[in-house]
Write a structure and sequence with these properties.
- The chain has 291 residues and is an alpha+beta fold.
- Among the domains are: 106 residues, Nucleic acid-binding proteins (OB fold (Dihydrolipoamide Acetyltransferase, E2P), Beta Barrel); 94 residues, no CATH class.
- 37% of the residues lie in helices and 22% in strands.
- The chain is built from nine helices and ten strands.
- It has a five-stranded mixed barrel. Strands 9-8-10 form a three-stranded antiparallel sheet.
- α3 packs parallel to α5.
Length: 291
């Protein structure tokens, strides 16, 4: 489905391809069509929205969606968060202008499940707060798109979020050390046979061995099994993860370890995790029906 909400002069380039310009060299308007995912949007006046996209071709960028707040606007659906499409953006003086779009996947199934949508929102906010403007990275785009599909269908969406966090940290150059001591670089014992615990240190960048534990200040205690799960998530092999027994304790340790690592290393606090925590608490403490 193609949607248009801007004058034809802007959305009809004279040259073939994704980039076009008007005939007049003194009044040139360049447009670019990109594959993008909506990270967030905010109102601009009474009619418009500012939409933040992560695109395969140009990375993160913001554009004005004219009239997108109007009920009958053809850009209303295209400007919703967690939407994948082809977006045509005209370059402006400061912000671009979203001129038209082709809807690829609105992820309706994801948005119909509040818990799954909350996990996906955490992933989107993390990406939004850690990637720079207009720095294209196809690997990051592919990771986000694949993760949105996984959030829809995976029986344990929290594992999808943990996997996303680890892979994004890897692509940004901040992957925690999981197989060797992050301080002295000595190899860890065989995790599969080790029944004890380690310290996960955001300060040193990952797991620390017993000899180095006294040197770390802020740290999270994690079992060898939790480390093994994180290594399996990084392997990209779904069968390696399914072969493992994952307990609520493992999930809690991963959640805390990666949360503190991201906060320490990237200086990022996610508002969406607060909503996710409240939602999880409400589901575990249901209100009894009124008789």
């Amino acid at each position: 489905m193609i949607v248009e909400a801007f004058p034809a002069a802007l959305s009809s380039p004279t040259n073939k391809g994704d980039v076009g310009s008007e005939a007049s060299p003194d009044n040139r308007i360049r447009t670019t069509t990109m594959s993008g995912i909506v990270l967030r949007q905010r109102p601009l006046g009474e009619r418009d929205r500012i939409v933040t996209l992560y695109t395969r071709e140009r990375g993160k960028l913001a554009a004005v969606a004219k009239g997108a707040r109007q009920p009958r606007s053809k850009l209303a659906a295209m400007s919703q968060p967690l939407t994948h499409g082809r977006y045509t953006v005209a370059r402006g003086k400061s912000l671009g202008v979203l001129t038209q779009g082709t809807l690829e996947d609105p992820f309706f199934r994801l948005k119909q499940d509040l818990l799954r949508m909350a996990f996906a929102t955490c992933a989107v906010e993390l990406l939004d707060k850690t990637v720079p403007e207009e720095d294209a990275a196809a690997d990051i785009f592919n990771l986000l798109l694949a993760s949105l599909y996984e959030f829809q269908i995976d029986p344990v969406p929290e594992l999808v979020l943990r996997s996303f966090e680890l892979e994004l940290l890897h692509l940004l150059g901040y992957l925690p050390t999981l197989k060797r001591c992050s301080r002295c670089n000595s190899p860890l014992a065989d995790l599969h046979r080790h029944a004890g615990s380690y310290l996960f240190s955001p300060q040193f960048g990952g797991i620390v061995c017993r000899d180095c534990q006294r040197h770390t200040r802020c740290s999270v205690t994690v079992t060898a099994q939790t480390i093994e799960i994180m290594v399996a998530l990084r392997s990209g092999d779904p069968m390696a993860v399914r072969r493992l027994t994952i307990t609520p304790r493992n999930m809690q340790e991963m959640r805390r370890a990666l949360s503190e690592f991201i906060q320490y290393r990237l200086d990022v606090n996610l508002k969406s995790t607060q909503f996710l925590d409240r939602l999880r608490w409400m589901r575990s403490h249901p209100v009894p029906p009124v008789e």
